[in-house]
Amino acid sequence: MTSASLPQGVLLAFYGDDFTGSTDAMEALAKSGVKTVLFLEPPTPELLVERFPHVECVGVAGISRSLSPEAMEQELIPVFEALHKLKPRMVHYKVCSTFDSSPQTGSIGKAIELGLAVFGERRFVPVLAGVPVLGRYTVFGHHFAYSMGDVHRLDRHPVMSRHPVTPMAEADLRLHLAKQTDKRLGHLSVLDLQSKELTTVQQRLESVLNTGSRVVLFDVIDDAMQLRIGELLWHEAMREEEGSGQNPEAPPLFAAGSSGVEYALAGYWKEQGLIAPAPPAPAAAGKGDFSGQNPQPLLVLSGSCSPVTEGQIHYALDHGFIGLRAPVLQLADTDTSVAEEVESRLMDQAAEALRTGRNVIIYTSLGPQDDTIPLLKQQLADAGIEPSESGKLLGSRLGRMARKLIGLCQLRRLLVAGGDTSGYLIQELGIMAMELQAPLVPGGPLCKVYAEDEALNGLELCLKGGQVGPPDFFVKVMEERTIGP
């Protein structure tokens, strides 16, 4: 990236409301040539100078999608304050591209209010949910998502309409957000965004802002429209009268939405020649070999209830993977001795298979109709535990198993499926940061891990949301060969 074209310092800082979505945002930037590092804890300015002087965009992988509004305050305010110290031109609260949230769990409206409180008021908060490359589209305020061969309106989506924690019963994102915040909502539709002239689109934006709207939802139907939004957002972030880019104390532009924000910005920077071409991805040079080492087995940990992941598990089992169903009722038992005994037994089974070179999947459920889902909800309710806590309970247990198995079996590659559990799982590993290693499918990249623990440092990690990837995705991750440094 040329300093003459774009300002020095951090261009964009983002917080991902789950871990799989955080790697999605990182991938969108990094594969376009924007130097991006994803951290598990907010970095200090000093750390960036000392360890990551090349960084241009910074991400923090979080867990707020599974939190109550009160817990979101405790989680987000310290992170936002730390990101503010990096003096980014923009800050993005990154959410899932299916916008799953509710007033009680993972409230996007609450996050917007907290962002405004920490970063200060700009003219408006842009909200962008659509990501054409992921099959996510917003048209006249209504959101649509591709799944299993067709594009579905969000409230009729075969997965999101039946999400076990935040089922989406409303496709109009304006109505959905209005239940989460009192901020006045505006909207730029596909008709407003058709013009290729920035000034015309800016005039439409001014008309919306003149109504008193301070949160503006953007439609997006294709890459060209996404590009125009990127141009508009970057010009807004760099408005001279705001002093952004000139006055280091000026508040950054705060946005909320999917990785469409990253794709929009990176696309605009790339179109304008403001960023250097991305280096080629590590070359494919065969199958089943990682970083020039001897073949290593793949460990998959799945906490996903998605039918997409269900299909991927079945495909992998049909192609030689060993499947171990995690006994979730016992793992979530309030009697910790029961949970620990089951955890130990499951880990021993996995280690035995991995040591013989077999690829292993440990999974908590097979699709949204799995019998254990309602049973686990009832068990938690009987114990006075909120159902949304299931991700934390299971994710933490899976994470402890993963860390032990990585050391015991000298694993070099790990795949984690499921947004709600992945954050708690990865937190148990003790990772400091991640960078893009190689793109696999949009939204599911292979990442390189930075960690103080030598067993984890350099680990190749793929975090996959429930809706991401084709049926053979687990096999593709196993076969992908990358040539390490």
UniProtKB/TrEMBL annotation:
UniProt-recorded Gene Ontology molecular function terms: ATP binding; kinase activity
Pfam families (UniProt xref): NBD_C, SBD_N
Keyword entries, A-Z: ATP-binding, Carbohydrate metabolism, Kinase, Nucleotide-binding, Transferase
Membrane-traversing stretches: none
Annotated Four-carbon acid sugar kinase N-terminal domain residues: 12-240
Superkingdom per UniProt: Bacteria
Domain Four-carbon acid sugar kinase nucleotide binding positions: 299-474
Gene3D superfamilies, alphabetized: Four-carbon acid sugar kinase, nucleotide binding domain, Putative sugar-binding, N-terminal domain
InterPro entries: 4-carb_acid_sugar_kinase_N, 4-carb_acid_sugar_kinase_N_sf, NBD_C, NBD_C_sf
Coiled coil location: none
Family: Belongs to the four-carbon acid sugar kinase family.
Name of the protein: Type III effector
Originating species: Paenibacillus rigui
Organism placement in taxonomy: Bacteria, Bacillati, Bacillota, Bacilli, Bacillales
